[in-house]
Amino acid sequence: MNKSLRKAVIAGNWKMNKTPAEAKELIEAIKPLVKDADCGVLCCVPYVDLQTALDAAAGSNIEIGAENCHWEESGAFTGEISAKMLTSMGVKYVIIGHSERRTYFGDTDVTVQKRMRAALNAGMTVILCVGEYLEQREQGVTAEVVSSQTKIALQGVDASELDRVIIAYEPVWAIGTGRTATADQAGEVCGLIRSVVEGLYGKEKADAMTIQYGGSMNAKNAAELLAQPDVDGGLIGGASLKPADFAEIVKAAVNG
After folding, report:
1. What is the pLDDT of residue 140?
2. d(Cα 43, Cα 115) in Å, to the nearest integer?
3. Amino acid 28: pLDDT
4. Which CATH number fits domain 9-255: 1.25.40.10, 3.30.1300.10, 1.20.1300.10, 3.20.20.70?
5. What pLDDT, in 10s, does the model give residues 133-170?
6. What's the pLDDT tens digit per position in 102-120?
7. What is the distance between the alpha carbons of residues 21 and 62, in angstroms, rounded to a whole number?
8. d(Cα 144, Cα 208) in Å, to the nearest integer?
9. Known catalytic residues?
10. What pLDDT score does 166 carry?
11. What pLDDT, on a 0 to 100 scale, did the predictor assign at position 63?
């Protein structure tokens, strides 16, 4: 991390976990553990937990985000939620392009770009996820894949909007598998992403962008990963459901 240039952000991605009652209990447990953190702390929760989470986090340093949004404001899209609906509740953050959305629910680079554009238009801050499959890493095309995903997602995004974009590098082979990129691998690809942003928007904007690592970061490996100069935080899956572990990751970001 380089906190003199950009803000570290630790974001929990709860995925399809926790009822509203359980969400309240979890946030209440996390709050005292992270209350003095000088980094961003964010919990991205299922739609049904959003209002409970907003209420539970009110007055604390924890921000609440959603896990996805649709690219239209309204319409015949059964089961979908728009960015406008989220902002009407007071939700300021949203994850776009998570590997599980791409793998299981048909999100493509094109639909990721459309969702991202809709979220930015609604005034939200986006955590944009990019990352390669194991086969792509083994074929040596990680740089091409991640660069392409980043460029397509940022298509039409003005430089003035970049302060509302966080990019999370999520190697698909490390999501929910217990496998983790080495610190050097994570740092290398986060640096690559920063170089892509620099090519599109210039060095000043690239230096200011928060780039997270999102592949099975946990309490044990967080400090090593966050020591990489281009890793500015984490998008945390399973460990975000464990208050003590999540707090340890936040602590690593604070001390890094």
Report:
1. 94
2. 20
3. 98
4. 3.20.20.70
5. 989 998 999 999 999 999 999 999 999 999 999 999 99
6. 999 999 999 999 999 999 9
7. 18
8. 23
9. 98, 170
10. 98
11. 98
Closest alpha carbon to 13 in 205, 168, 198: 168
Distance, CA of 27 to CA of 32 (rounded, Å): 9
Tell me what pLDDT residue 155 has: 97
In this structure, is the dihedral angle defined by the CA atoms of residues 167, 213, 176 and 14, taken in order, positive or negative?
Answer: negative
* CA 253 to chain CA mean position, Å: 15
The pLDDT assigned to 142 comes to 95
Residue 205 to residue 111: CA distance in whole angstroms = 25
List, in order, residues 6 or more apart from 105 with CB less than 8 Å away.
none
Four-point Cα dihedral 157, 159, 164, 168, nearest 10: 70
